[in-house]
Predict the 3D structure of the following.
Amino acid sequence: MKLNEIKDNEGATKDRIRVGRGIGSGKGKTGGRGVKGQKARSGVSINGFEGGQMPIYRRLPKRGFNNIFASDFVTVSLGRIQTAIDAKKLDPKATIDAAALKAAGVIRREKDGVRVLSDGELKAKVTIEVAGASKAAVEKIEKAGGSVKLLLAVEAAAE
C-alpha cells in the first residue's frame, strides 16, 4: 500500500449530475425544474409563501420578547456538588467557586456566573462563593454547617 494507491471503496462516491446538457442525458432542456414560471428561473427564493393563503408566521400570535440584557447563569444542584466532593474532585475545606467547579468538571463554562439550586442533599460543610443561590439551597448549605457568599447581591447593593 502506497499513498498514491489510496482510493475510495467502490460505490463510495457518486458522479455529480450535469444538469441541462442535452435531452439524451435525461436532465436536459428544463434541467429538472419543471416548466416555465418563477421557480424555473434562477435567483428565486420564496420561502414562507403559501400561494396567497395567509402564511403560518402571520396566522400565529406573537408572544413575549427576548431580553438581551438578561444574565445567563449555569445552574448547579447541591447533589452534583456533593457527588463531586464524594469523588474527591472538590475539596470541601477550600472555597467552592466557579473556577473550582470548572476545574472539577462539574460545569463546562462559567457564562455569566453560577447559580446553586437545592436539588439533592448536601452532607459536607462547605463554603460556597457563587453569583446566586436559591433560598432553599442557602438553607440546606447552612443546615449542613456551611456558608454561602453571593457575588451578585454585593454588586446590586453597591449601585
Observations:
- The chain has a mean pLDDT of 91.
